[in-house]
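Below is how a single chain appears once it has passed through the pipeline. First comes the sequence as given, then the structure the pipeline wrote out for it. We keep one example in the README because the format questions we get most often are answered faster by looking than by reading.
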Amino acid sequence: TPDAAVPEWTLPQARSALRESTRELDRLLDVALRFGRRTFDYVAAFAVVRGAAGGWDSRGEGLDANALSLVSIPLDASSVFRTVAVTRGSYAGPLPPDALTRHYLELFGRQAPRTVFLYPVEVKGRLVAILYGDCGQKPMSQRRLSDYILFCQDLPASFQELILFRKQRVSELRVPEEDITIDVDVPGFPAPVQPAPAPAVVAGLGWNPVFGRGGVANLGRAAALPPRVLSPEELPPPDFTP
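Resulting structure:
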């Protein structure tokens, strides 16, 4: 039944439950909506994405969560949703007379309620969600409404803590980058040539030889191989001198 999930929380108890739910988005949203049922017959949350308030979840009499997810309210059209999004202030009062507000409420099954409540949830200057509640044609308890407004003032910090927790968890799950080493014995990769001591300059030529005799440890792989016997065709001519 709609009243089965209505908790008999006081404001401190609701705030305590909210603090304990900042590591799971579904749990955080459930606490906010369940405590809202203490004040309203119907309460819903809308996620603000790309300039529209999309149906997120709800409690009480009205559309179920699956049907509410199909509702999208543009925030660039004149309505009470746009007023709350632009001013970043809550609204509690009679239904505005404009046709769009009435039309949007009918989309999620609310037929001209007597009083409506909307609260914008803002995180670091960005609007992330809008909470909605009404009591149908019944009067709204001002005391319970005041408690819920005070409760909603804790929502931005709770959403911010949830975001920080998710970022931290993602960074901890990342696999640390391993050092990439190349095995010199793998075919296809040349062995690194270690720097050799500066050889003496050949007399009369003025350049340093890049080949010649020296320690094997200071030579590359090709130079460390045994000398290859040249064929007669590869031998230099007799008049070839240094």
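The beta strands are 42-49, 52-60, 72-74, 91-94, 115-123, 126-134.

See the next section for the split statistics.
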